[in-house]
Known about the structure:
elongated, Chitinase A, domain 3, alpha+beta, two-stranded antiparallel ribbon, 6 strands
Amino acid sequence: MTFQRTLIALTLGSLLLAGCSSSDDAAQAPATTPDTATTPSAPQLPKDSDIVAEVNGENITAGEINAIAVRQEGAPDSPELRRQILNEVISHKLVYQDAVAQGLDKLPEITNDMQLARANLLIAASTRHIIALNPITEEEIGAAYTEYAATPRPTEYKARHILVAERDKALEVIKKLADGGDFEALAREYSTGPSGPNGGDLGWFSAKQMVAPFTAALETLEPGSTTQEPVQTQYGWHVIKLEERRPGVVPPLEQVRDALVKHLEQQRVKGFVDKLRADATITFP
């Protein structure tokens, strides 16, 4: 149900682990000597079928708590965590019971949402199952990377710019450059952009990372040259200096590995769906 899915996503906390001794019991326990001391056994988690609470006659099992606990990233499992989860489950169970008592689960929009949520859960489970049965291999990743690396990449530029609010100010900067002014010093003095304190340095970037007028101006420049007319964009007026250009750089495999695996998994699922469609009888009224 939608409610239960939300519960798993939102709850934090934990059950008490079975078999833990209280501080009072520990205080009353007889002292042991090194010769007679034994290593205490680790507390055992409740079995999934164990009932850990009952809310208005409806059981909460350890399995429900376990399912939530294992999804808590960055939170080590502990009795306190499981106590918190149990308390959240009880609260959600009470709200859920009240919603059912009011007949909210019979509302058409809720029924539709519940059906859609169930379908989405099953689709997600099927997707995971497909990948588990047909995991992506290292050979596939290598082939995908080879294809990716062979794809032509856009030219990259290394440039600086001076951004000002008015065209006349940009023309003033261009004149100072023509008179021998230092671009980096003028950028620190005049530029209102965030790169100003760094001498207008924009680092390396591809054409698609910049707005069209800026890119068009870059493409007319040779390395070391500067625009002789101010370039207007929505950000203001630019004076641009092209320092270098190079063919697009292919990132190393490890940098794009996760993206390649995700793409391959999507292709795997698409192939499965295509086969289902080919085998299905689909009609349209």
